[in-house]
């Protein structure tokens, strides 16, 4: 039978236990500080007027009123009844819209990392946080919009066919017409 080698434990010196706990606490605080520093930037969405119903998803098209301002309060863009595809806007804007409901009005703060980052964009300097006032008027899924487009195309084709049929029986151009 083989015996396992035993390592004798040394007694803990007086005061060493408190040093171990202080060291463990220091490591825990350092780890949480690193974790905090590594936390991704977040979009802030403040509700001014509550909306109702579901929220749009990244695959939806929204219809909004908005005003965008720089940290000094200067308006860099604004528009009314603008259709936008969530997949085609800056990440922070899409994230904010996904937290909204139809009919609601919101103030949104987007950190530069979720806006244009270290790239200037028109009147927006690089590394600039943005603030938006957004009213979500309506939204639809891509499938709903495609269905509506197909219906509109079919209606237009039917109207063209009806106009073509009406024009073929018009007097003056038909063979055998009296002169």
From TrEMBL:
UniProt EC number: 5.2.1.8
Region span, Disordered: 158-179
Domain PPIase FKBP-type: 59-140
Keyword Hydrolase listed: no
Class in the EC hierarchy, top level: isomerase
Bias (Gly residues): 166-179
Database matches in Gene3D superfamilies: 3.10.50.40
Reactions this protein catalyses: [protein]-peptidylproline (omega=180) = [protein]-peptidylproline (omega=0)
Transmembrane segments: 20-39
Gene Ontology MF terms: peptidyl-prolyl cis-trans isomerase activity
Organism superkingdom: Bacteria
The keyword Lipid biosynthesis appears for this protein: no
Keywords: Isomerase, Membrane, Rotamase, Transmembrane, Transmembrane helix
Similarity comment text for this entry: Belongs to the FKBP-type PPIase family.
Protein name: Peptidyl-prolyl cis-trans isomerase
Biological source species: Novosphingobium organovorum
